[in-house]
Amino acid sequence: MTGVGMPLRLRARLFRDAVLVALCVVALACAVVPLVWVLWDVVAVGVANLSLEFLTSLPAPPTIGGGGWANAIVGSVVVVGLAAAIGIPVGVGTGIYMSEYGANPLGRSARFLSEVMAGLPSIVAGVVAYGVIVVTMGQFSALSGGIALSLLFIPIVAITTQEALQMIPKDQREASFALGVSEAPTTLRVILPAAMGNVLTGVMIATARVVGETAPLLFTVFNSRYWMEGLDRPTATIPVNIYSYAISPFEHWHEQAWTGAFVLVTMVLTLNVAARTLWARRARFMAGR
The domain spanning residue 170 has which CATH number? Predict the structure, then answer.
């Protein structure tokens, strides 16, 4: 059918379809172009100043130049590790309850609170951890930073765990019950292992989200120019160092802030790629391919 012979209504539909596709392309460009621009700047400037000294040495005084962020890299790994150590058991346990035993007001309330907490501004978690832990301990510490990040970590893991468990066919539960296995062992030995790939993906996504948070750490971990002395002491972290160096008046600190941003983006991208790869492999396994 040629354009001349098309009914007016069909031509109008095709026109609307073309307009909507064009708007979608524009929206995609608006989302992708700024992201590519930011990543290009981070990579171009950050890689130029990346060195072994930056990764292995302590910060130098601003008037000397040089130095590195080894203590900040270690501090970020420890603080995020604490958040994961707290958040994984609590988040997975909450997700299991919401999925398997949550058909009641408590389960629905837990789901609602998890969704609210997942959208919680990170600075709120920092203020809460400051009031509850830092004020009580009388000092900033890596432990308070890990707890603050765990408040952001737990709801993501809980929601993804619930959704992962609900994806498991009911036939597996019924087959386990038919063999005389009770509900709790069925959940822990049959359902959870079957959903473990998606649960781990949720854990990686949560880790990727909290690893770049700055506001909670400003209220809890604070900063340090030395190696970590203990979980009850302040420590340096990459996000806080980026903030501190970027607002300083020293040009070489600005360059180091770009390099720190590159290291942080690399960490986040690595976690996201690992999560998506694990998710894809799990999907192929479940599909029998």
Answer: 1.10.3720.10
